[in-house]
Amino acid sequence: MDNKANAPAKKEKHSLSAFTILVIVLAVLCIISFFLNGSPIRNEIIQTLDPEKYADLLEMVDKGETVTVIGAKLKDFVMAIPNGFVDASNLLMFIVALGGFLNVVMKTGALEAGINHLVHKMRGKEEWLIVALMFLFSLGGTTYGMAEETIGFYVFITSAMVMAGFDTMVALAVVLIGSASGVLGSTVNPFATGVAISALDSVGITANSGLIYLIGAVLWLSVVGVAIAYTLHYAKKVKKDKGSTILSLREQEVMREEFGTDDNSTMLEFTGRHKGVLVVFALMFIVMIVSLISYQDLIFNGDEEAFLAAFGWSEFLTGQPLGWWYFLELAAWFILGSIVIAIIGGYNEHSYIEAFIDGSKDLLSVGLIIAVSRGITVVMSATHMDFWILDQCTQLLSGVPSVVFVPVSFVVYLILSFLVPSTSGLAGLSMPVMGGLAAQLGFNPSVMVNIFCAGSGVVNMATPTSGVVMGGVAASRVEYSTFLKWVFKLLIAVAILCTVILTVAQMIV
């Protein structure tokens, strides 16, 4: 008798979804806050906060009261996701509009034909696509903090990578790790270095912006070089032997269903209509990038009047000039673009609406994940756990010798960034305290800006509390556990590299 034949079939193992992982993290943080209920936070921490945003806490301190951790209640857990939706409403509007736009483009066939044409032209040199794209995404990261905006690139980047003989993990790395490498080494990024410098200025510390940009550039170029090499090593293995992929059988099946295969032997027809659609498609993303760059800070040194005199003409479309656009303006821009694409593609009114709605539904899961991750941030702020952890970390740093100040500061930001994945939010929250502490201990507070960028940058390459990470994982159809397994060695290498660069920089300056 064949026992193997009668043995019950093994159940296929499934990893937890990104949504489930985030809900678990949310529940754990709520439980921790319950046990920390009443834990005091030093007045020195509260007094550095933005008076416009935290007026109630500053008023408590002025009255002689002590701000403490507030244990989360059941209602905080239950309302976290709805509050996350409210907090991320503008971003979610952008994602809905972007999903609709992308599907309208996809239905024309132009994107598939264009990618097919590009892959045929790059045959034998497909690796250069990885190098060029990762560098370009990193450039967006270092200059204007390209993060949530990358969601729109996953569809065609993933299709191109799969058609070129790679897998969805390569596509995820190109977009997510590429842009994150730039944010880690932020130079003129207004949402990281800009907010951090402003935060230092609010407590009377004048930062050396030139030094910050220089160290940022060194971090950026070093990290993106390592990231490209790491991704290329994996990509070449996959292209040579499909069995080398880190994807599970289920993920490989999803990849084939969603993005096709690498069988690009057939040259698709690339018509004039296709070219017209792709010209508009490219223009949409070029304008998106141009609209997000902070010209007021980069060119006019914060002079709003001079900026408006030069760029005020561009407010005719959305009511905001280029350089002041954000997610609502981008949503309007992509809705307008979808209509133009529909006209070029020969859609009728019914087919356009149907395609737009179907595309919006495709990215709804990404929006839900981002909303849940925002819910975690909302709970952290409501319970004051973010302030308490910052308080504990600064007390820890106060007693360390100079030789380990940078490594310990880096670790502090690794912890803080997991709980507060927003670079601008973390900069405003922590830099007055951390920068002030560096100055008190005789260190250069400007370098602390780069430590903040590097620490948050490493964490935001993989943290489950980041909507950018979890949204990217969902958009590329890779399971989070698989991505974490792939990226782990890279994170260790990047963390060591950053620590060495920052320690040397602090010693020199």
How would you describe the overall organization of this protein?
The chain is mainly α. Helix content is 72%, strand content 0%. Helix 11 crosses helix 22 and helix 21 packs across helix 23. The chain is globular.
| Low-confidence parts | 1-5, 7-11
Strand content: under 5%
Number of strands: 0
Query: Cα distance, first to last residue?
Result: 78 Å
Major sheet size, sense and barrel closure: none
Question: What's the helix-strand series?
Answer: HHHHHHHHHHHHHHHHHHHHHHHHH
Please state the average pLDDT score.
Answer: 88
Continuous helix count = 25
Radius of gyration in whole Å, from Cα? 24 Å
Helix proportion of residues, in percent?
over 70%
Shape: globular
> Which structural class is indicated by helix and strand composition?
mainly alpha
Keywords:
509 residues; mainly alpha; 25 helices; 72% helix; 0% strand; globular
Write a compact overview of the structure shown.
The protein is mostly helical and 509 residues long. The protein is 72% helix and 0% strand.
